[in-house]
Amino acid sequence: MSTHPASTKVLFVAGTGRSGTTILSTILGQLPGAMAVGELRYVWERGFLEDHRCGCGLPFSQCPVWRAVVDRAYQGAPPPDPLAVSQDLLSRLRMMRIPSMVLRQLRGRPAVPPHPNDDTIAALYSALSELEHPAVIVDSSKLPPYGKILERLPGIELYVVHVVRDPRANAFSWRRVKVTGDRDDDDATMERLELWRSSAMWVVWNYLVEFWWPVKRGRTVRIRYEDFVDRPRETVERIAQLLDLDTSPTPFVDERSVRMQPTHTVAGNPNRHDRGLVTLRPDEEWRRAMPVLQRAVVSLFTLPGLRHFGYSVRG
Ligand SMILES: [Zn+2]
User: Fold this and answer.
1) pTM of the predicted model as reported, rounded to 2 decimal places
2) What is the 102 CA–ligand 1 centroid distance (Å)?
3) CA 189 / ligand 1 centre spacing (Å)
4) Is residue 110 part of a domain?
5) Distance from Cα 67 to the centre of ligand 1, integer Å
6) Would you say residue 187 lies in a domain?
């Protein structure tokens, strides 16, 4: 395993799924010095085990960047047991463990219990920073408990961007069928969630991010998805400022269009494969297509957080 001579900034993009975290991360990864790696929390199954397509278009096992990083991290061999790491993460990051995470933290212990697999995970981030020398690694793993593991790893200086989206738009998006585009040989679709489930996740995850990384700590910025798609350039520049990232040359060709170069993201929304000129527009389909009753259900379930995160009850 590698040593950790200096610390690297990792920007953890936190929030619930379907909140625009992938497109935001991919754009941030276009800034000079920033490297978007996608949802690295899933590299164990989607990269090592299932060989999904990297953001550069090649299967994970063929991507020259990841091949070099993996060689460096595990001395020329694949990591010892990706299946074990993947299963361990699944189990440690479970939503039902949140009460015990909070209790552990209140008692002054790490919220997520440490595990020997943390060294295997840390080796990947160290090798990334040693080989690619990014000023910032942009990791869109989203799940707050994973951020808690990252925060503790040696050599990582954690920054957080908390993305919140209108829960009704979020719930609507969770019910849509989306092909991942991650492999040639199948038309696998992204996971779908029932309204109550996406609503509960919205409340729990967002409050947890706020509890763990409040904006006042100085290394967190909170943005609403709606503001980001309305003023993408301004939002990206605000985040860049927090990280001391240079925004010239800028990937923006105007206030809302970005020239996208390929990234080396390992997992995330299918839009991580987008190339060329991408123009951001608010995705308002839910306002027309979501039945009134469904909206009401989501508003009711997410009531504790709606106003708090800047949304009106009536949408
Ligand atoms: Zn790649």
Assistant:
1) 0.92
2) 37
3) 21
4) yes
5) 9
6) yes
